[in-house]
């Protein structure tokens, strides 16, 4: 089919909203993504004053290769809501979106991103506990987690027993990736392996982590990114990856299953 030739198992270099706009309704089972966080429009934190420390994404002080990550807040919120609307359009009734974001303190008050997700069918907020953080500030405790919104259409279901992972996940952030804000593969492996989605889209694909994870579990991927540099990084990574390498090893860890009373 025409759309498959154009999108399936491809990394497409283009704008997120425009490119998703070309994907027909209902054809993507699952979206896993992490947008730019608008970090450079911050009112001030560890990133702004240069105290990025040892973490790989301290590089975000300069933004991404082809996007400065510094929009007026209202414009940013509208952009992200436009992205979510497109994601909702292309997933079917059994589809879902795992939308990673980070809460932060702005002008002394918590910015919890409710303005972005309000009105979308948020079913759960998963806490991604990272090791350490960047935003040292004497006014509040060091933030050590990000959130993953599970935004789900009515018929979305996890595979049997995957719910036992609970809603607080601990994964060290990725530090061996030239991309300044890459997902750790294990985090995405957990999401992919917890569903039976066949076609998985990451509309902010960056270095290609979601595609690698899709390949690990023999699923199809679609990747979009504005940066030709990151698209090339993703294509190389995919080319050098042995497909299905996690497929037989990955099992739900029985010892971590919560016992229901
Ligand atoms: C947080 S990063 C995603 C990293 C990715 N999860 C990974 O594992 O490498 C956000 C990405 O959004 C991309 N981006 C920014 N503006 C965009 C736009 N208008 N359209 C598509 N991609 C965009 C950036 O180039 C960046 O790679």
TrEMBL record:
The keyword Coiled coil does not apply. GO terms for biological process: DNA restriction-modification system; methylation. One of its GO terms (molecular function) is N-methyltransferase activity. GO terms for cellular component: cytoplasm. Residues 28-235 form the DNA methylase N-4/N-6 domain. This is Methyltransferase. Keywords: DNA-binding, Methyltransferase, Restriction system, S-adenosyl-L-methionine, Transferase. Its EC number is 2.1.1.-. Belongs to the N(4)/N(6)-methyltransferase family. N(4) subfamily. Pfam families: N6_N4_Mtase. Gene3D superfamilies: Vaccinia Virus protein VP39. It comes from Candidatus Taylorbacteria bacterium RIFCSPLOWO2_12_FULL_44_15c. The keyword Methyltransferase applies. It catalyses: a 2'-deoxycytidine in DNA + S-adenosyl-L-methionine = an N(4)-methyl-2'-deoxycytidine in DNA + S-adenosyl-L-homocysteine + H(+).
């Amino acid at each position: 089919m025409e759309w498959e030739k154009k999108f399936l198992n491809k990394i497409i270099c283009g704008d997120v909203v425009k490119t998703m706009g070309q994907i027909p309704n209902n054809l993507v089972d699952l979206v896993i993504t992490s947008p730019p966080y608008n970090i450079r429009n911050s009112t001030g934190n560890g990133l702004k004053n240069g105290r990025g420390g040892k973490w790989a994404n301290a590089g975000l002080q300069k933004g991404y290769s082809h996007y400065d990550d510094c929009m007026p807040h209202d414009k940013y919120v509208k952009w992200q809501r436009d992205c979510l609307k497109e994601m909702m359009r292309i997933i079917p009734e059994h589809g879902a979106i795992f939308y990673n974001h980070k809460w932060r303190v702005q002008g002394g008050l918590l910015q919890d991103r409710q303005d972005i997700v309000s009105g979308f069918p948020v079913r759960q907020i998963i806490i991604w506990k990272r090791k350490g953080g960047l935003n040292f500030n004497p006014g509040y405790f060091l933030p050590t987690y990000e959130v993953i919104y599970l935004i789900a259409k009515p018929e979305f279901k996890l595979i049997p027993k995957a719910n036992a992972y609970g809603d607080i996940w601990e994964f060290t952030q990725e530090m061996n990736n030239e991309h300044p804000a890459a997902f750790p593969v294990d985090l995405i492996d957990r999401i992919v392996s917890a569903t039976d989605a066949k076609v998985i889209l990451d509309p902010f694909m960056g270095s290609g982590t979601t595609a690698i994870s899709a390949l690990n579990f023999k699923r199809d991927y679609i990747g979009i990114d504005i940066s030709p540099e990151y698209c090339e990084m993703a294509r190389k990574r995919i080319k050098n990856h042995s497909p299905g390498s996690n497929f037989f090893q990955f099992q739900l860890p029985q010892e971590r299953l919560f016992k229901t009373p």
